[in-house]
Amino acid sequence: MARNTAIPFMLLSCAASLVCCGCQSVPVSTFAFLTQQPANAKHSETDPPSVDLLEENERTSPYHRQANELVQQAVNHYSNGELNQAKILLASAREIDPGHIGTFEIEAQLSYDMGDRNQFLQSLRAIRAASPNDSQKQSAIGTLFFQAGQTQEGIACLKQAIELKPYNENYALKLAAFYEQTGRTEEAQQILLRALHTSPGSKRLPIALGRVCESNQQWSQASIYYAMVVNHFPKNHVWRKHRARCLYHAGNYSAAFEQFTICQQNDPESLSLSEMIAFGDAALRLGDLETAQDLFDEISAVHQHQLLHVEILRGLCAINRGQSISAKSIIDTARKKWPADPTLLEVAALVPVEQ
């Protein structure tokens, strides 16, 4: 049976060497998140002795060792494409050792490959229940739940991962991304804000917050977060352009003009068409008519046939600079292309009549 590859998986070859670690094992190609500490890893002195004793008993239990052998055989059958036989062996292993997490993890892979969605989800739920204190597994299982359309379970797993490791910004970024995908941008913003409060020196969280605010047209807030990003990456003008755009839309034309100017001076080809228009309009609003005229002339030379409003702005610049002949030429040329445009007619009426 051909295997679906929609979810990225580890190579199964790593399974055999890990499976005998028992509860801390599970080597399944579907689950790259199943990387665990080795069985002989030292426990913290603060761990309850009863937990240590339980884990040691599990590793030395003859039932557990027998289950491991069956899981190993299941892995071998799986790697040979014998999925049904692997599934039978896993069922036998679970009868011997019902709590063996390896059976759930490998069965999740088998169920996915065999198209058994319900069993796949059951296996994920079993892994989640068996790993309440493993932030890495909670995060990865949450991703799989999202991919399977189980949004609420995915969110619950990611929240658990964040609670376990609040200083790991990856979990907050992932949960925020999932919230955004489902249109819950306010919740995404709150998750990112809490994470930034926990990790104020983060370089990635302000980027994510800037993007969320920008998508919500919260221009002033977005510009603040992008300012943080620019402080982290002063030579990266991609983020400076984001800040300049947000400042422009927020009505802070002076600050926007300053940021656009820095971008143009350091990388003249970096500004997009819309950014050039915003740059020119900011200059016009600030009374820097010469800069505005130069920018609009440059845009017109490249995009003349597409941008009526740029020709209107060019004409206005020329009128305000007292260049009546140039203004008349610009407006007359534009009216040949857009003879019925009412705004052009209004601007044409502003051109001083030659004496």
From TrEMBL:
Protein name: Tetratricopeptide repeat protein
Superkingdom of the organism of origin: Bacteria
TPR repeat residues: 135-168
Source organism (scientific name): Gimesia fumaroli
Matching InterPro entries: TPR-like_helical_dom_sf, TPR_rpt
Keywords: TPR repeat
